[in-house]
Amino acid sequence: MFSNIVKRFLPTIRHCRFVSSSSSSSSFSTNFSYRQYLVSDLSNINLIDRSVSLHGWLQYRRMNSFGVLRDHSGLIQFILPSSMKEERQIFKQTPVESCIYINGILKKRPEKDINTNMLLGHLEIHVTDFKVINACLPVLPLDVSKYHESDESTRLMYRYLDFRRDIMQERIRFRSAFIAKVREFLLKHSFIDIETPSLFRRTPGGAREFIVPTHLQNGGLFYALTQSPQQFKQLLMIGGFDRYFQIAKCFRDETGRPDRQPEFTQIDLELSFVSRENIFSLIEQLLVACWPDKIEKIPFPRLTFAECMSRYGTDKPDTRFDLEIEHNLEQLSITSPISLNDIKCIIDDNDIQYDNNNRKFLLNKTDNEEECLIKMGRLRLKLADILEKQYKIELRKRRQWNFLWITDFPLFTPMTDDRTKLESTHHPFTAPIDQHLSLLSSKKDWSRIIGQHYDLVLNGFEVAGGSIRIYDSFIQRFILHDILNLPIEHLEHLLKALEYGAPPHGGIALGLDRLLALVLETEHIRDVIAFPKTSNGKDLMAQAPSQVEQSELDYYFLQINKKKYH
Amino acid sequence: MFSNIVKRFLPTIRHCRFVSSSSSSSSFSTNFSYRQYLVSDLSNINLIDRSVSLHGWLQYRRMNSFGVLRDHSGLIQFILPSSMKEERQIFKQTPVESCIYINGILKKRPEKDINTNMLLGHLEIHVTDFKVINACLPVLPLDVSKYHESDESTRLMYRYLDFRRDIMQERIRFRSAFIAKVREFLLKHSFIDIETPSLFRRTPGGAREFIVPTHLQNGGLFYALTQSPQQFKQLLMIGGFDRYFQIAKCFRDETGRPDRQPEFTQIDLELSFVSRENIFSLIEQLLVACWPDKIEKIPFPRLTFAECMSRYGTDKPDTRFDLEIEHNLEQLSITSPISLNDIKCIIDDNDIQYDNNNRKFLLNKTDNEEECLIKMGRLRLKLADILEKQYKIELRKRRQWNFLWITDFPLFTPMTDDRTKLESTHHPFTAPIDQHLSLLSSKKDWSRIIGQHYDLVLNGFEVAGGSIRIYDSFIQRFILHDILNLPIEHLEHLLKALEYGAPPHGGIALGLDRLLALVLETEHIRDVIAFPKTSNGKDLMAQAPSQVEQSELDYYFLQINKKKYH
C-alpha cells in the first residue's frame, strides 16, 4: 500500500504498535478503541480460520456479495454468504466509501483465486455480520480508490476525501514520522524544545507580517504574527538555554507568490558557543539520522557565494548535473553536450547566442556581470529541461541528494530600487566574519563585508538558512541604525538584552515543507501539508478568509476603507 | 541545582547527552560546540588534575581572584593565581553575569574548604587562562543568582535575565521533557502528529477569535486565528487518519481574564471508533506514563455532573478534602471540623448562616437550586483556605494528585441572558448519549439531553475536556440550526464532510499550560511559558501590541475608528 521509498522508512513507526507493552489480548490496534483489528493485523497466520471484526470503508463492491474493506493499513476482500439475504439487500445499496463494520471468519483463498495485486490477496473474510455505520453519498467528487489524481482545487475542496487516497495517507504519515525523528535526534543532543509566541510586534525589514488587531486602549494597537522565532531564540541564548529547537509555525503575508503558504513550518534551532563548522556538522548529522535514503557522504560539499554565482549563475544550484558556466575573456558560455540544431526556441533572451560548431551558448558580458550570470543560470536550467524531455538524457537523477552549503555571502546587498542604500543579504542579526569587523568603520567598505551566513541547498532548492549572530550590542546598533537605517525603536529590547552578557551564538532554520516536498517528490509543498491554502491564500474547503460582521470590526475599532491601495 | 521533584523526572533527559553515539573524545557537551565541558561534566573523577575549559556566566566574584562560573548544569568555583596580574586586573572589573571563558586545572579542594552547599563544592579550577567574552552592565534589574523573586513585571520585561535563574531553567526544561514524553507515548500508540492551520475562518459560538486582515479582493476578507483544531481533527477522522494528535497552539481573544493567555497550548487528540471508556483509559495511561510523580491509582474516579454539583457545588471540585455539601430537606449545609466562633468574617454571603452548636454552615434552598449549590461550593473553598491558613490544618496536600472525570453533562444549557434559548454546554459537535437521541424530536425534552462530554479535573482545576462527536450529518445540522440557531453557513464544509461516510469518533484536549503550572506548583501559567503576555495581553519586553503605520493599514484597506465601542 505504501511506495517503496517510504516503506524503507516507516516500518519502525507503523509497526511499533505491535511492540508496545500493551496488555491487549489480541492486537495493539484494539487499544483505546472498540475496533478489534486493522487490516494489516490479518497477516498474522494465527488468525486464519478465526473470527475477526473490522471497521473501515467500503473500497469496492461487486453485486450484492463481494466487497473490499479498506483502512489506512490495507485492503481485505470479504464475501457475504447467500444465507445473509437481508444483509445482501442492504449491501447492494451501500455506496462505496461508506463506513462499515464486518465480522466473519478469516479464510485462505483457494490458490486459483489469489489476487497477487493485493498484499493480503491470499485472504478473505467470510462474513457473519455486516453493518453500515455511516453511509456515503452515492456520487463522489473525487476518485479515492485509484492512484489517479483529480484536479487540485477539487482535492483541496474535499481534502477529507483526498486524505483517503493511499498517497496522501503516506505523505502525512511520513511527515509525522520525519518530525519525530528530527525531535528524537535533537533531544538526544540536549536541545530544549521551547514554544515561542506567534503574537508579537512588527520586526523591521524582512517579509510583510500579518497584523492582528486588539481591543486594547480604544484601538490602534496590533500584534504582528511572527515571521520566524529569530528574536526569541536569540533571547533564549542570552537567557542561558544554550540549545533550543522548535518545530515552528511561521507566518508571512506573501499572497500570490507561487508555492508559498501564508503559514509554514520550520525546524528552527539555535546554539550558544558555536562556529559555522559546528552548525554544518550538526545539520549534516541530523539529516543523516532522519533522511529516509542513505546520504552518501558527509561533510556536504561547500561553495562560496561568489564561486557559486560564477559557476552556476544562482545561489541555489542543482549540482546533480554539470553544464557549468565558463568564463572566456569577455564572454560567458555554457557547453552543451549535444548539438541543438533542431530545437527551435530554446532561448528567450536575445543576448544569448548559440554557436553550433562548438556547441556553446555564448553571452557577451555587459556592465552588470551578476545579471549576466543570472541569465546564464536560467539558461542552464532550461537546457537541462530540454536535454531531459526532448533528448531523454537523465541529468537530474531521482533520489540523488546533492546537499550543498553556500557560504561567504556579502553581509549587505544594494537595494533594488535605490542601489546607494544597503539592506541585509540575510537578516540584520547576522555577524560579519571576524576578519571584516574592521571594515565596518568605513562606509566605502561596507559592501565588501562578508557575513557569517550560510544556506543549505538541495538539488536546486534552498532548504535551510542560518548564521552566526551578532552578540555585541554596539555592533548590532551600528548596523541597524547607521548602515541599514532601520527604525531601531522596534528592536530596543533585543539591543538591551545584548548588554547583559550575551553569549556568542548562532543557528539555522530548515524549511520543513520544502524538505518534505523534495523527499516525497511532490510537485508543490501543498501536497505535504494537511490543510494548505491555495497560492493566493484561500482555504477552498471552508472558504477562508471570509467577511466578518461589522460588530466584530467595531470591537477592534476598525472600519473597512475600500479606497484603492497604492 | 534542581528541585527534588524535578530531579526524579529529568535525569533521563538531562543525562542523555552522555549516552549518545557521539564520537567526541572528551564529553558529549563538546558536540556541535567549541565549548569543551559543561560544569556537570566536571563530576567525572577522571578529569581531576586535568586541564579543562568552560564557557559560562560569572555568578559571583570576590576581590580580584575568586569567582564562580555558572552554566545551566551547575556552578564551579575558580581561582586566579597571583601570577596572573593582568587577568586579575580585568577580573576585578568584570561585572557578575558577564559571559566568560576559563581554562585551568581541575583540583580537589582541601577538606576544610569544601562547600557543602554546592554540588561541586569539593572542586575548584586553578585558572591558567581567563577571558571576558561579553561584559554585562554593572547594574542588573533583577537578581539572577538568588532564589529570591523580583516582581513579575520586571521579570517579564527582562525575561532573558529571568531565564538565568535556576527555577526558570528548571521549568522550561521540564516543559520540554514533559512534551517529549507525551509525544513518545502517543507515537508509540500509532497516533499521527499532524499540524493544522492557525489561519482559518470564524467558528460560530465559542470564544472570541482574533481576526487577521488580508489584502485579498480589495479588503473586507479576514482570517480568524483558530481557537482549537476541533474542525480539522474531525475532518482528519473523516479522512481516515484514525488517530491524530498535535501539541497545538490555540488563540482566543480573552484579554483581561485572569491567568489566561491570548495564545496557549493544548495536547490535542482525536480517535476514530472509540467510546468514552476508551478515551478515559488512554488519558489515564498517558498521564501515568508522563507524570513526574507516581500516580497512585487508575482508573481515575468519576462523578456525574449532577452528583458533582450536588456534593461540591462546582463542576471542578478539589477532592483532596471533604467538607462536602449535605442536603437536609430545605437546606444545604457544610459541616466544619472545628468551631469557627473566633473567626470574624468568613461569609460574604448574607444568605449563609453558621450554626455553632452543630458546627454547620446552612443555606436555605431558594428557587434556583444550582445557584445555591454554587454558593456553597465557594464557601467550601473559602472554608478550606481558613482551616489551612488560620488553623494550620493541611487539607490540600502538596503533590497529591486527585484526578477526577466529570461525565454526563447536559448537552445544552440555557443562555445566561435569555434562558428560553439554549447553548452548547461543551461545543456543538458533542454527541448526545445514544439513549437520549430520541429526545431530540421534542423541544421540551432538549434540556434533559445528556451529552457524551467529559472533563478531567485535577485538584480543583479543569485540565482537559472532550467528547464523543456527532458523526451523522442530519443530527449535526438539526442541532446547529434548529436547536442552537447558529449561522450554519460557516460550517457547511463540516456538514458536507459528514455525508461521505464519516466514522464515529471522539477526542479530548489537555490544557498543557495549566497541567504544567500544577505539576510545577507555580502560581500562574505565565511561569511555565517562556514568553507569556500579561493578563491584559501585553508583551512587556518588546511592547507588543504596538501601533502600525498607516501605510500598513492601507494595504489591508482598513482604518481606525476611535468611536466608542458598544
UniProtKB/TrEMBL annotation, chains A, B:
Alphabetically ordered keywords of this record: Aminoacyl-tRNA synthetase, ATP-binding, Ligase, Nucleotide-binding, Protein biosynthesis
Alphabetical list of InterPro entries matching this protein: Aa-tRNA-synt_II (IPR004364), aa-tRNA-synth_II (IPR006195), aa-tRNA-synth_II/BPL/LPL (IPR045864), Asp-tRNA-ligase_1 (IPR004524), Asp-tRNA-ligase_1_N (IPR047089), Asp/Asn-tRNA-synth_IIb (IPR002312), NA-bd_OB-fold (IPR012340), NA-bd_OB_tRNA (IPR004365)
GO molecular function, one term: nucleic acid binding
Domain Aminoacyl-transfer RNA synthetases class-II family profile, first and last residues per copy: 172-545
Domain of life according to the entry: Eukaryota
GO CC annotations on file: mitochondrion
GO biological process: aspartyl-tRNA aminoacylation
Record-linked HAMAP family: Asp_tRNA_synth_type1 (MF_00044)
Record protein name field: Aminoacyl-transfer RNA synthetases class-II family profile domain-containing protein
Species of provenance: Rotaria sordida
